[in-house]
Each structure stands twice: as C-alpha cells, then as structure tokens.
Amino acid sequence: MVVTHGHLPRTAARAAAGHAVTVGNFDGVHRGHRAMLDRLVRVARERRLASCVLTFEPHPREFFAPAGAPSRLARLREKLELIAEAGVDRVHVLRFGAALAGMAPERFATEVLAGGVGARWLLVGEDFRYGAKRAGDFAQLLAAGAKLGFEVEAMVDVTEAGQRVSSSAVREALAAGDFARAERLLGRRYTMSGRVAHGEKLGLQLGFPTANIVLRRKSPLAGIFVVEAELEETRQKLKGVASVGRRPTVKEGAAPLLEVHLFDFAGDLYGRHLRVAFLAKLRDEKKYGGLPALREAIEDDAARAREWFSRIDQHHG
Length: 317
Hints:
single chain, alpha/beta, Rossmann fold, six-stranded parallel beta sheet, six-stranded antiparallel beta sheet
C-alpha cells in the first residue's frame, strides 16, 4: 500500500489515473469501517480502478477543540496497518488545518476529491458531511459528482446488537471495561502498540520491570489490565499485566504512559515494537502513600493477572 501525506494540489496525471475513493477518520478501523473498506476494494477491482482512502491528521475535532476531542483508539501507524490489511492500494493522509477547515464544500469536491485524488467512484457514510462548517451534505455531494465526473454511493450503517457500530461505541465499551463488547464492535481484540522507550527504571527497582510506551494523545483506557503482548518482529506472545495512566504515586502531572510487565520474560525490549492486547480490567489507577504500598499493589495486580490466565487456560484445557 502506498501512503502519502500533506496537501493535495491539483495534479492532472493523478486525476486522469482515477481512483475509487472513501473519506473518513477511520479511528480504530472497526467493523463498520472494515465493511466500507471491503466495499471500496471490491468496487475498485470491478471497475479496474485503484482504491484510495482519504483520511485526516489530526482528527478534525482535535483541531477545532483539542481539550474536548475524543480519545484516539489507534495511532496513525496502527490505523494505516489495519487499512492495509483490507487490501487498499493507497492512503493519503490529508493535513487538517485552517486552510482545509475553511474550504467551501464546492472547492473540497473540486480540488480534493476530483482534482486531488482523481475520484471516479466515491463511497461515504450515510451521515457524511464535508466542507467548512460541515455545510456539505450527501445531496450536494451527488450534485458535485454529477458535475465533476464521479459517482457517489452511501454505505449503510453496520449494527451490533441493535447499536450502530462506531468509534464512539468502541470508546464507551472500553471505558466500561467491556472488552468482549469492544471486540465484537472492532472485529478483533483491542490493542495499543508502539516503540518501547527508556523510562525511569522504577519498575525494575520495585522488582517488576516494565516495557514503557509513551502515549502522545489521550487514551480511551485508564487503569490496570490483564494483557497479552506481542513482539511485532517475532510474533512472540507474552502474558502480562499493564498500567495505562499518569502514575500519580510517582509523579504529579506526568505524561500518560502504557507500562507493561511481562511474565516469565527476560530480555532487552528497548526500541522494539510491542503490540498489547487488553483482555480484562483489574482496577482503576490509584495514588498510594509511598513506594512500598505501590509495590504491594503491583504484586497483587500481577498475582490476579496470573490467576486470570490460569482460569482461562483451565477453561480451554
């Protein structure tokens, strides 16, 4: 899959090539997104067009209201990997800034959809809005397509247990610690991934070394969790316990961090990519009176996580 970034100037060669296109944030790439991607790829092949996803960075709501923006379900790298798994030919990550936010619907259709990615067939959600102040609706998009030479199709919503599958629904399930529901909405277990960074080595001092992944954006999770981690380079799977939060006992106002203690593992993980699947929530994050109390809590968390895995192993055995 080819990935490009930045602005989309009008390019005659690109427009002439033609793409089957879909547009959206695709945060988390849940089952509703995957249905859109599958439809996109299928129609592109039928029409002998390249398939293209047009997405945004940052999320428009992060641009307009950073403090009130929803948490990210996936980093950009994770999102691109999930889109690639669907068989998409190309993704363009369009920089969302003041220029794009102020672009009139007609100009967006002309310069971005028709001229920028050369849309010949366009798939959008039923509630798709576009252009400055979200002024453009589906009827306007149909008219623009007729004028500019691309067909438009609306994708019906995918539902699960009577509820629309959406990124918001996934966030709600994760916030409630309902990982089974999150898995049904996503079509897979919820994961976070990233490169392991050097930390303060406090876990090592407490007898529980951790692999640390810095969370640069607001996380949909907070607390202590049973996890299964996978080394991306080797696909080795490792059981463990993880903390997602700001470590209030250690440092006030610390940046959010994913800390993973892996059971029965010894080795250097610094600089390696780790994918962490969340299986169950043990408790909320808590501030303790000092490091001895924190160590006791971590010891209890690890024991409870091991018991959780033992019960699962016995059930499947």
